[in-house]
Amino acid sequence: MTDADELRRRTRELLAQHPPATTGRLDFLRARFDAGLAWVHYPQGLGGLGAPRTLQGVVDAELAAAGAPDNDPRRIGIGLGMAAPTILKYGTEEQKRRYLRPLWTGEEVWCQLFSEPGAGSDLAALGTRAVREDDGWVVNGQKVWTSSAHLARWAILIARTDPDVPKHQGITYFVCDMTDPGVEVRPLRQITGEAEFNEVFLTDVRIPDDRRLGEAGDGWRVAQTTLNNERVAIGGMALPREGGMIGPVAKTWRERPELRTHDLHQRLLKLWVEAEVARFTGERLRQQLVAGQPGPEGAGMKLAFARLNQEISGLEVELRGEEGLLYDDWTMRRPELVDFTGRDAGYRYLRSKGNSIEGGTSEVLLNIVAERVLGLPAEPRTDKDVAWKDLAR
Question: What is the tens place of the pLDDT at every residue in 48-105?
């Protein structure tokens, strides 16, 4: 299935059989998945047709022209960008068929239980324990910075299953049901006033062994698929020209000539060009994904995303002068999606501060780029061969 004309034919056939104007949104999305037009590069029977990833745009253009509903990808970004590629690569056939369809249609929201209070940048030092018991595992621990945990039905979870081996070797990857007994979600209010993040407490949570992804003890390797895809999802998202943070600033510049100064003009031009470079680099990175799973290059894109967002939002606050110091609403909310460009300039400025932390801190990503992209000597790691239980904490 490599022909664009055939994909157009199949898409038009879907539209004829399920007219968007008279078909319920969820029914249409389910039919689209079953027709293999959800993500065309996935295998047949799992929402795809085994076609090249580049042909997804052919389907999307036909559906957009017909006014067909999408699956609200910003709301289910963790499922689409992180859980799905990991399940596809490491899941059993039964797991793929159980999870991928409701994940893609948005019927089931996913979250990510990776970071912990003592294991953020050094994720492999995590201490949440999963102990084998009968035909499953009993999990105890705490996770933090969990986006959408208050909405999620499922979570991708890594936990320590063997404390007697070095930290990277004793981790196992699971799918956790967020509705199970012992799962407690508490909001974390951020500098924006919202609580899109959460902390999650796991107390004697029982996970059947058939919800394990990959082999026991091989969770760090499985997690690399998730983390690499996460960085591409955050830093390499598809944007039109002046999409993202640069758009509101450019709009204000054009509509408010009284705010302009020579210095601000020079800074805006520089950032506009850098935003375009990042946009085209992201497109090239997405094209490279056709050849396989993302590699460490995604770390560079995520680095650029964080730096640009922070510099552009800072410029916007300065451009607006006294208006830039205002903030629209500090009301505590638990939003359904994260909109980096939403609300006012003050929100964008504050929210962008988290961009250099979430999805891997900029400091950690700089190390990844240095060692795995540029081939520079690795930093000394004295704990690499020490059993986790013997590490100082």
Answer: 999 988 899 999 999 999 999 999 998 999 999 999 999 999 999 999 999 999 999 9
Tokens matching residue 72: 């609200």
Which residue's entry shows tokens 């289910």?
76
In order, the DSSP letters of 297-351 are HHHHHHHHHHHHHHHHHHHHHHHHGGGGG--S-------SS--TT-S-HHHHHHH
Strand spans (E) along 68-135: 110-113, 129-133
pTM higher than 0.85, yes or no?
Answer: yes
Is 285 within 8 Å of 298 (Cβ atoms)?
yes
Residue 56: φ, ψ to 5°: -60, -35
Q: Is the pLDDT of residue 351 over 60?
A: yes
The residues carrying an active-site annotation are 230
Q: What is the DSSP string of 223-287?
A: HHHHHHHHHHHHHS----TT-TTHHHHHHHHHH-GGG--HHHHHHHHHHHHHHHHHHHHHHHHHH
d(CA 311, CA 324): 14
3-state helix, strand, coil in the chain (%, to 5): 45, 15, 40
Beta strand residue intervals within 91-135, DSSP E: 110-113, 129-133
Task: Say which amino acid occupies 339.
Answer: D
C-beta of residue 16 within 8 angstroms of C-beta of residue 10? no
338/392 Cα distance (integer angstroms): 36
